């Protein structure tokens, strides 16, 4: 089969297919059985040579672009249609969300990791182009993934829902694309919906975003309508990459993941120069040297190639076993001909939610450390440092971009690395000014200063932007006021829809605000936020005592007005989860030395008078007094084992 394909593809090489030359005598290969192996090798090398895409030699035939949009506006579905249109997958092998390869992405129906695929596309002019497509997440917690993906592109498709119009992340992603100086093609998707209003949305795009209405493309990613025209516009409207293949190698690492058999698989965008198999590369951040074992392009599976040239997006495998050597944003160059300066890289991301992670089994601590290292390679927005707790042992204090990011990291650690975890109550970073004017940043209740030494406490505030249908205005405003919202404002971006803005403490948002918003708007509300500043606040440290002993893992920082509510909630949850003992257990919530909430777990009672079937009543009283004294002594020396599910119950109630 391979011989026939090669012969049909390159008839000028038939002498290599049907005949083998020996001392100027052509011998029919079919008559010489032992020549079959040699003929196959000759054919295969020739097939590889001629199947090597000429596009890699012509930078003008490459288009690097990304799909950006608000949550659930159809990015992954459009990517599926493009892959099908370019014949990258058969109908039998096709499945929805082709590029979402994590189980958690398919379950939740969201994109968490940016994914790249190389599409060969034959344009209307007969030329074949290489389209490097990057599908990005839409949720605000993964905006850092979007910013990294855009650094490897020259253009972007800004996808907008024909029914919902411009929403919070539409604007945020547009600004990200403009910061990267990308060519933008506005695309109105879901034109097949009964509620679609593409003309109104097009007018809004021109008015609010300043994009030319005549440049707007319309399509339906679900039915495939307009996808062919969209692919053609990518070729004609987006610029090819700039780069010089003759300059020293400059390649930007924009992502990486860990393969247990091959080591680190590095995703790169080659800016200048060429990279070949066997080259010795250098990471400019730490001068680590490696030899390239394999490189290639991202098709549905990794496809090896002999060379990556300027303007191309691909992967490198170089036997990198030390996970910390690979950093997204780092520059790769050649050892023998290095580039003078590294590329700018990415800006540092600021984590806003903090929580401590502990393994349920203390033996899993080393495995958790290794798992976090590997996960950070694939998720550059995650930060962690060592932490310890008297109740839970050794663990890590982690920083996240939001509560969804926290949930995803927890699930990935449990699924991909098979580690059972406990998380402490999420908190944010506070700024403490002490009486001696010392300033401290604290995100862990363990390090709460002595209340007498505190001069002022500041907490982070955000500007929340909420897009809702008009009928939910009252419910959303009430929700924001309950969460200490201030400076509310609203306007109508289009008839029937309201853009509501409000300034909120971030600590009030990270618990269950998003869930409550979805409930009061019946799922129609969308939420985005940006950090504003730090403002003075009346914060207290809420401690939980079990049998008069403080449980440090359950301590939390909260506003004084919400402290009692949270204390009562935590006490009730613990009462349900902690098993009864032979003595009464008191569960208390305290601020300093003041108890603000309390509940008791009643003692198990053994019937010590069962054997007293008669006689004087003093016999029974004597036994009961003896039991009472024993319980009192047991209460002072007994330890209460708090089950792991109790920590999860307190966390779950807050979320």
Helices and strands in order:
Layout: H1 2-9, H2 14-18, E1 19-22, E2 25-28, H3 35-51, E3 62-69, H4 75-85, H5 103-108, E4 115-122, E5 128-135, H6 143-150, E6 155-161, H7 168-179, E7 183-189, H8 198-209, E8 217-218, H9 227-237, E9 250-259, E10 263-272, E11 275-276, E12 280-283, E13 288-291, E14 294-298, E15 302-305, E16 307-308, E17 313-317, E18 331-334, E19 353-359, H10 365-378, E20 383-389, E21 393-400, H11 403-416, E22 421-423, E23 430-434, E24 439-442, E25 454-469, H12 473-482, E26 486-494, E27 497-505, H13 506-509, H14 513-520, E28 526-536, E29 539-546, E30 549-550, E31 556-559, H15 560-577, E32 585-591, E33 594-601, H16 617-637, H17 644-654
Parallel strand pairs: 3-5, 3-6, 6-7, 7-8
Antiparallel strand pairs: 1-2, 4-5, 9-10, 9-18, 10-17, 11-16, 12-13, 12-18, 14-15, 14-17, 19-21, 19-22, 20-21, 23-24, 23-25, 25-27, 25-28, 26-27, 29-30, 29-31, 29-32, 32-33
Helix pairs in contact: 15-17
Distance between the termini: 59 Å
What class do helices, strands and sheet pairing give?
Answer: alpha+beta
Radius of gyration: 31 Å
CATH superfamily of the largest domain: P-loop containing nucleotide triphosphate hydrolases
CATH class (first level) name of the largest domain: Alpha Beta
Low-confidence spans: 1-57
> What kind of sheet is the major sheet?
8 strands, antiparallel
